[in-house]
UniProtKB/TrEMBL annotation:
Segments forming domain HTH lysR-type: 1-58
Family, per entry: Belongs to the LysR transcriptional regulatory family.
Domain of life where this protein originates: Bacteria
InterPro entries xref list: LysR_HTH_N, LysR_subst-bd, WH-like_DNA-bd_sf, WH_DNA-bd_sf
Keyword Transcription regulation annotated: yes
PROSITE patterns assigned to the protein according to its UniProt record, in alphabetical order: HTH_LYSR
Species this protein is from: Paenibacillus pectinilyticus
Protein name: LysR family transcriptional regulator
GO molecular function term, any single one: transcription cis-regulatory region binding
Keyword field: DNA-binding, Transcription, Transcription regulation
Presence of keyword Repeat: no
Amino acid sequence: MNEKDCIMLQYLAEEQSLTKAAERLYITQPALTYRIQQMEKEYGVPIIAKSSKGTRLTPEGSYLADYAKKTLIDLHKMKDYITGMRNEVKGTLRLGVASYFGLYKLPPLLKMFNEACPDVQIHVTSALSPEILDLLHQEAIHVGIIRGEYPWFDAKYLLHDEPIIIISKEEIALEQLPELPHILYYEPRIKALSQTQSPFSETIQAWWHERYSVPPTITMRVDTYETCKEMVKQGLGYSIVPGVFVKPQDGLYTIPLIRKSGDPIKRNTWMLYRNSSLDLAIVNRYVQFMKNQHI
């Protein structure tokens, strides 16, 4: 099983679709099907099964896909180690970034880093923070950038924090909130974490229970902060969002969330990595680069 086969199996496992996997591999579906048939002959087991609902991996195929995933990680670590032996700032830097950071903050930073280290190839995965954390645990990425508080017991660095605020089209008083229509942001949930509430939601609930004995009047549930803001602009209710999403030109009233103790409630953006990975020149250089930026 070569590297291309490993990537093919990984995409099949992620997509559960021959068409989508072929698109990601930039090959035709017949070419992908042919290679799968060759592997089935080689190993003597069925790798995929087709049904009216689409394509899925067989138990044998799932085992091969898991093996392929581990093999790719080991292959990347081997290449990193060989490159690191020369202590050269070159090779492939694998980053995982929270979707917001990838959209609003990362592009100019990567441009600056690329200009300073032109021999470094950068692979970026943009996803939800729990997914980024999972990639770090798997050692599939070198550095992760997440938003919010998640357990990580190795190296971490606070890139920036932002206030969490109430936004409304008209001026409102905190005492009014339980009776006013609330546009609730809810974080899309990942299957593996479907029973886990996001740290952002937990923070908001804790603040609410400090002040009110009744639940909010939720009239809408939306899955992006931008949608929350646009609904508020139309006077459809108030919302609670990180302050970074709201600009003066939005023309909205804002109230920062403050605990009864007087402490402001903020949302942090963290850079996570392993101390051992700093032995790699490209990771060390990137981590120091990010620490020197005033994000």
